[in-house]
Amino acid sequence: MHFPVRTTAVLALLGLAAIAPLAQAQDNYPTKPIRLVVGFPAGGPTDVVARAFGEFAARSLGQPVVVDNKPGANTILAAEAVASAPPDGYTLLLGALNHTMIPALYSNRVKFDALRSFVPVCSMAVSPTVLVVGPSMPVKTLSEFLAAVRAKPGERTYATPGSGSGGHFASEQFNRLAGTRMNHIPYKGAAQAVTDLMGGQVDSSFATLGSVIPQVQSGKLRALAVASPQRSPLLPDVPTFEESGVKGYSADAWYGLLAPAGTPPEIVAKLTKASADFARVPATAEKLRGLGMQPQNTCGGAFTAQLDGEIKAATKTARELDLKLD
Question: Which strands form 65-69's sheet, in the order they lie side by side?
């Protein structure tokens, strides 16, 4: 179909008129509160990072950032809510290591792609995994722990924030490397797992340092080893697994910001700046260290590549361990 020149010009102007408000909205972003969705209950390490970032981002972006805890289905409910939201920057996900394990564990019930349904903005904090024991397992070293576990194969218990969680993968990877068998006790979040660990209902946990640092520092839990290449500055007297004889075991957990796929680059750029500034500000770094975490500033393509690598590694591990949750 051919339009007269005048009609074509009018249509072009109408097209520009339609684009102009959208471009202006992106330039003015944000103009209303931002919803930051978290796939865990309040009180856990992911929630703590979300609230710290929310306070910072509210000042940086000039609009309130409302944390929306949406636990359930191993963070699938939260991720699904964000993946299906309008890509306008007003619904975001504060994700954690669990996010990259979803494709490895679920093949039927997930309505989104853990990588392609999102724009990975930035990873802002990282926390090492630490093996901790409670009063029901009074051992002082990793070697004593191994002896106790091997003396009762399949009887000693370990707590995690849920089946298929980062703690679950970290625990099973340890079992594979150390040649041990333990009984998995899943919880609906880290807070209750830690409570029962202190109460002696479970023996141990491969927990993120951020979820147990107050209890370790107060002596209510004992840390036996840290799953990082180097010792944590918060626990300088606690050896790494490598130092303690379990070679090749590393399990750092990240906390980062993701937006729905299709979010305009201009909005992503503003979110990236807020995320990167959050990780760089000395006051934030001090606050994160007090929570057992270290600031991390991995953004854009580097963050995307990190997630892609973790998804592939988790898929391989799940296949080897025959872990499937649907």
Answer: 65-69, 34-38, 91-96, 253-260, 118-127, 294-299
Counting Cα atoms < 13 Å in the Cβ hemisphere of 280 gives 10
Tokens found for residue 131? 């093996």
Q: Which SS3 state, helix, strand or coil, does residue 156 take?
A: coil
Q: Are the beta carbons of 326 and 105 closer than 8 angstroms?
A: yes
Alpha-carbon distance of 22 to 41, in angstroms, equals 35
Peptide bond into 30 cis (omega under 30): yes
Comparing CA positions, the residue from 100, 74, 78 lying closest to residue 165 is: 74
Q: Which of 291, 54, 317, 301 has the alpha carbon at shortest distance from 166?
A: 317
Q: 88 is written with which tokens?
A: 């306008």
Is this structure's pTM higher than 0.85?
no
Question: Which distant-in-sequence residues (6+ apart) come within 8 Å of 14 by Cβ?
Answer: none
User: Which residues are registered as beta bridge partners of 258?
Assistant: 93, 120
Token reading at 252: 């750092």
**Alpha helices by DSSP H, 63-178:** 76-83, 102-105, 142-151, 166-178
Q: Are 204 and 228 in contact (CB under 8 A)?
A: no
Query: Under the phi-then-psi rule, with left for phi > 0, alpha for psi from -120 to 50, and beta for the rest, what region is 229?
Result: alpha
pLDDT, tens only, 63-80: 999 999 999 888 999 999
Distance separating alpha carbons of residues 236 and 143, to the nearest angstrom: 19
209 φ/ψ angles, rounded to the nearest 5 degrees: -60, -35
pLDDT of residue 16: 54
Residue 288: the pLDDT is 86
Neighbouring residues of 179: CB distance < 8 A, sequence distance ≥ 6: none
Residue 220 and residue 43: Cα distance in Å, rounded?
18
